[in-house]
Amino acid sequence: MKRVAVLSILLLGLATACSTSERKNAMTADTKATAETKKLLSFLSEALDKGIMFGHQDDLSYGRTWKYPDGESDIKRVCSDYPAITGMDLGHIELDHQFNLDSVPFDDMKEMALKVNGYGGMLTFSWHLDNPLTGGSAWDISSDSVVASIIPGGVNHQKYIGWLDKTAAFLGSLVDAEGKPVPVIFRPFHEHTGNWFWWGQNHCTTEEYVALWQFTFDYLVKHKNLHNLLFAYSASGDFVTSKEYLERYPGDDYVDVIGFDYYQFSDAGRESFINKVSSCLDTLTAIAVSRNKIPALTEAGYESVPDSTWWTGVIWPAIKDHKISWFLVWRNAEFRAKHFYAPFPGQLSESDFIRFYELPQTLFREDIREIR
Ligand code: BMA
């Protein structure tokens, strides 16, 4: 726990008491959500007045130079605390594989998820599922008929149901020591406004995307009776207006969290990244208030963090004036020269990350344990 956090959180809480009372009670999209799931949504809503949570994909599974030792985390190695939110990916659960697409064993993933929950952390699951029409990966965009083939009436609909059954079995197996389902944030079919996944903008129609989302929600929630899920709708950060952002929005009854993903690609892009993230967040947070949803920067980062002050000089200025629940950086792929997004001991941005961690408004696991 950072020294400055408790007092600051209390002061922030007092200063923003008005805005808290003005916000309507958040309602889960799943009307039968478990008490713990409703509590998670309420916490996400209340924490909007307390700061911005930090998240990291696959934080516990592996880091820059290690794989799987219990309790390890590159974030912990740098600041002696864990992210408030841990991302995990379900890609290849649909194929009944024992390992996900990044070689994380699903059994270990489950164990880690239960631990994160037990320590008061939160979990978000993305799903880079394979292409059900071609057998290729999530990035196989060779056909524009994939979504059409798996929604009701499509030739691969039954196959997709089989895939959802496997996903449901995993999500349903997340049960704590008291036998209660662990609430998690499920973020399927993300970055759909880009064109790199088979469910992307140019590879299906708006109606097909919406049908895919609604069927997936209804099947998991109403047919499989999973009531531990919050659903996150997450575009890519290439929108300007609310109308653009909402073009494929499946409806308030199908979504709990709204977000987008956006990355920086070069040092020269510093200012434009800050401006773009900030203006997208203006749009996103306005939609969130009007629709009573939780806004989040569901992915952001700069691969290999080559900017020594990226945390306090780029991402923080981009997000600090916006009421968002969290921002998550992508994975630190083990032993891959450049594919990492979080610092680790000796990494160029390490000391700046500690400054970022010490900011009273950035929330890590120990901070949220205090306020949950
Ligand atoms: C991408 C890359 C891939 C990975 C995928 C799913 O952004 O990190 O290496 O397989 O995410 O985690």
Could you explain how this protein is built, in words?
The protein has about 375 residues and is of the alpha/beta class. The chain has a single domain (about 5-370), classed as TIM Barrel, CATH 3.20.20. Helices cover about 40% and strands about 15% of the residues. It contains 13 helices and eleven strands. It has helices spanning about 5-15, 15-20, 35-45, 75-80, 105-120, 145-150, 155-170, 205-225, 240-245, 270-290, 310-320, 350-360, 365-370, and strands at about 50-55, 60-65, 65, 85-90, 120-125, 185, 230-235, 255-265, 295-300, 325-330, 360-365. Strands 1, 4, 5, 6, 7, 8, 9, 10 and 11 form a nine-stranded parallel β-sheet that branches. A two-stranded antiparallel ribbon has the order 2-3. Strand 7 (about 230-235), helix 9 (about 240-245) and strand 8 (about 255-265) form a beta-alpha-beta unit. Helix 10 packs parallel to helix 11 (about 310-320) and helix 11 packs across helix 12. The radius of gyration is 19 Å and the shape is globular. It binds beta-D-mannopyranose. Beta-D-mannopyranose binds near residues 89 and 102. Beta-D-mannopyranose binds near residues 89, 101, 128 and 331.
Residue fraction in strands = 5-15%
Second rung of CATH, namely the architecture? Alpha-Beta Barrel
Give the end-to-end Cα distance, rounded to a whole number of Å: 14 Å
Helix proportion = 25-40%
The H-level CATH homologous superfamily, spelled out, is Glycosidases
Poorly predicted ranges (pLDDT <50, ≥5 residues)? 9-21
Q: Give the SSE string.
A: HHHEEEHEHEHHEHEHEHEHEHEH
How much is the radius of gyration in Å?
19 Å
The description of the largest β-sheet is:
9 strands, parallel
